[in-house]
Amino acid sequence: MARSPSRPVKPSSPQGEPLYLTVGYLRRAHGLRGEILMDVYTEFPERLRPGVIVYLGEEHQPMEIASVRPHRQALLIAFQGIHTPEDAGRWRNTWVYVTAADRPPLPAGQFYVHQVLGLRVVTEQGHLLGTLAEVLETGANKVYVVIAEDGQEILLPAIEQVIREIDLHQGEIRVHLLAGLIPGEDDLET
User: Are 17 and 103 a contacting pair, CB within 8 Å?
Assistant: First the structure.
């Protein structure tokens, strides 16, 4: 999948939860029937089906999905009222959102990325490593990008041996550092 363009800042509710979640990025019109190629940024693409309302662009323009079909690593999507390539082209380079209230529930112990971004990351001994800034998708497992107070970037594999507990109420992620994971980790107070 191509590297995504930088995402716009989305409005949030007073509780810190986003009102909208990014599910795709519209790239270009395809064919003659008003379809547009969409990169997928959701783990639940099956929820993008005809009749579902999505929100386009920073203005969150509501649009009803008319049709969806796979196309290579992306989707070809059409919206109600859009029937020509010119109409579809109006939405080129536009983010596609759903409301956070419409997100499917996850099994216990699993979290959406937006829920963990910004959490403090601490060792099992209580030493603050920094703040979770990004979650990278890799082939084997996700990688948590933690930014320390000094600006140093720390990469932690999101595996059970490292990520011990995520506590949304306390606003922190408790981790176990594997030997050699962080340069100079012997200097950390325990």
Answer: no
Domains of the chain: 20-102 (2.40.30.60), 113-178 (2.30.30.240)
User: How confident is the model at residue 17, as a pLDDT?
Assistant: 61
Q: How far is CA 100 from the centre of its chain?
A: 12
Q: Which two tokens stand for residue 87?
A: 């109409």
What percent of the chain lies above the pLDDT cut of 70? 85
How distant, in Å, are the alpha carbons of 16, 48, 88, 133 from that of 116? 11, 24, 35, 9
Phi, psi of 81 (to 5 degrees): 85, -5
Helix (H) or strand (E) holding 113: helix 113-116
Q: What is Dmax (Cα atoms) for the chain? A: 64
- Cβ-contact 60, 97 below 8 angstroms: yes
Side chain identity, residue 55? Y
Higher pLDDT, 114 or 168: 168
DSSP-H helix ranges across 18-92: 85-89
